[in-house]
């Protein structure tokens, strides 16, 4: 189903000057081909505006790519986001590593060898006597070590690892926000640059038509060579603007491919995110300070740093451990002998002085924890400033759209008036060209403002911490960060990852 074309406030019926270039200033001879030129000019104006509106605001059929569809594609397949997810899964493994402090460590060993012996005894008049032989000593044993108390270091290590996991999850949410915002910007940039390119190409066609008219009038003696040169110069400049617009569009397409993963084809309208935004600026700031993932990640960083202080302090506490072993050895002293031994030892270790190294690391950990607390305030200030900036930008873009629409209306009226005055010899060719350029600039400003309006709304949504696949209800499988954590946190053995690697 086609989308309705939004009104830009342009009254096309006013572009009906009976003679675009006016009469001869010397003899007031009417311009030749007046009706044909006027119709051609109006056709080009209408074609340019409607084409740019169709591209910028998505006047396409049902097969067009939508902004939610592009965001879902980026959410599911963007390499940067997938790399961040892999990083989170790696952080998850810190928890079973820390839990290993509660578990026994068991090792087995075996050995085998050969021993040759030769002995002699002095024997007086009967001479010396001696003996020789070989032994094959061998043995095997198993040892178990179990920590009974380690100054609460294992418990605090587990809590530290869990805080790191929670912080990494929030960092992943923040990366997801940034990616989705980049995808919105890339999507809207392609729409904007395509519309501007169409406007610039249409302007070249219009200036070509105007140059043709000016040359006809020059041959008829109605204008001077200066008028022709002015039209030629303006056409050359317009062609350079087409080249620039093409380069900008190619860059936007490349960025789209990088973020979303495919080349853009037919793009549908990019709706703003207004329905998900808080109703006022104070409410937006309040939501951001409570929900933004960057702030939550910083708070988890504080928790981890404070727990690290306790981990280091635990090295000053006594530790208690159990060691048990079972071994069997053969051919130790004589061939065929065998010995079996079993041991169980409880060992208490009390640190007395370790040179001050643990004390230094404890103080260092406390300073790091203080740094993390300060960084939370820095992050809050950054988030607050981002909300204020994004909200102000959103309000500014709304005003820019209104101003651009008014500018287009005024420029249309001005262009019509300049053409009418040029027809009776009161305006020059340059003034007509300038009026046409002002109208083109107004249309470009409107296209740019519409793009900025959509991007600014998503910028506010990102600034308050709600730009996510869940909030946007994207049609893409949601990544469950908790699932991998639950799969690995209680594993005692196993080399394969949950996905089979």
TrEMBL record:
It is found in: Cell outer membrane. Signal peptide: none annotated. It comes from the Bacteria. The chain crosses the membrane at residues 44-63. Residues 394-452 form a coiled coil. InterPro entries: OMP_efflux, T1SS_OMP_TolC, TolC-like. This is TolC family outer membrane protein. Belongs to the outer membrane factor (OMF) (TC 1.B.17) family. Keywords: Cell outer membrane, Coiled coil, Membrane, Transmembrane, Transmembrane beta strand, Transmembrane helix, Transport. It holds the Pfam family OEP. It comes from Bosea eneae. Its main location: membrane.
């Amino acid at each position: 189903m086609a989308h309705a074309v939004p009104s830009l406030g342009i009254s096309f019926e006013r572009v009906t000057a009976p003679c675009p270039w006016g009469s001869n200033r010397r003899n007031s001879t009417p311009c030749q081909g007046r009706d044909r030129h006027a119709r051609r000019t109006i056709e080009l104006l209408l074609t340019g505006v409607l084409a740019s509106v169709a591209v910028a605001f998505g006047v396409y059929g049902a097969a067009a790519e939508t902004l939610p569809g592009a965001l879902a594609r980026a959410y599911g397949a963007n390499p940067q986001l997938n790399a961040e997810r892999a990083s989170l899964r790696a952080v998850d493994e810190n928890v079973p590593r820390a839990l290993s402090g509660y578990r026994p460590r068991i090792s087995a060993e075996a050995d085998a060898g050969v021993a040759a012996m030769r002995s002699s005894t002095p024997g007086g008049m009967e001479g010396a006597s001696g003996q020789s032989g070989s032994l094959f000593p061998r043995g095997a044993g198993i040892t178990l070590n179990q920590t009974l108390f380690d100054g609460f270091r294992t418990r605090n290590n587990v809590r530290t690892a869990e805080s790191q996991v929670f912080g990494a999850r929030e960092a992943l949410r923040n990366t997801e926000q940034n990616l989705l915002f980049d995808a919105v910007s890339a999507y809207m940039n392609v729409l904007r640059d395509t519309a501007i390119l169409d406007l610039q190409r249409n302007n070249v066609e219009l200036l070509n038509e105007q140059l043709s008219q000016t040359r006809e009038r020059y041959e008829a003696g109605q204008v001077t060579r200066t008028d022709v040169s002015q039209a030629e110069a303006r056409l050359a400049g317009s062609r350079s603007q087409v080249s620039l617009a093409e380069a900008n569009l190619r860059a936007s397409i490349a960025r789209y491919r990088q973020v979303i993963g495919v080349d853009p084809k037919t793009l549908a309208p990019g709706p703003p995110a207004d329905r998900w935004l808080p109703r006022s600026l104070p409410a937006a700031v309040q939501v951001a300070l409570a929900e933004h993932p960057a702030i939550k990640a910083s708070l988890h960083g504080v928790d981890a740093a404070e727990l690290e202080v306790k981990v280091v302090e635990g090295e000053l506490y006594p530790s208690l451990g159990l060691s048990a072993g079972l071994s069997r050895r053969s051919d130790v002293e004589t061939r065929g002998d065998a010995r079996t031994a079993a041991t169980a030892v409880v060992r208490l270790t009390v640190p007395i002085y370790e040179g001050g190294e643990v004390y230094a690391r404890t103080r260092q950990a406390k300073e790091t924890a203080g740094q993390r607390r300060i960084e939370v305030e820095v992050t809050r200030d950054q988030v607050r400033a981002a909300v204020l900036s994004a909200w102000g930008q959103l309000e500014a873009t709304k005003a820019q759209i209104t101003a651009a629409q008014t500018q287009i209306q005024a420029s249309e009226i001005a262009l019509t008036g300049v053409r009418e005055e040029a027809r009776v010899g009161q305006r020059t060719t340059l003034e007509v060209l300038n009026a046409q350029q002002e109208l083109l600039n107004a249309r470009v400003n409107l296209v740019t403002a519409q793009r900025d309006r959509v991007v600014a709304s998503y910028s506010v949504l990102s600034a308050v911490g709600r730009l996510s696949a869940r909030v946007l209800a994207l049609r893409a499988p949601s990544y469950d960060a908790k699932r991998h954590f639950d799969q690995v946190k209680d594993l005692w053995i196993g080399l394969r990852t949950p996905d089979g690697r």
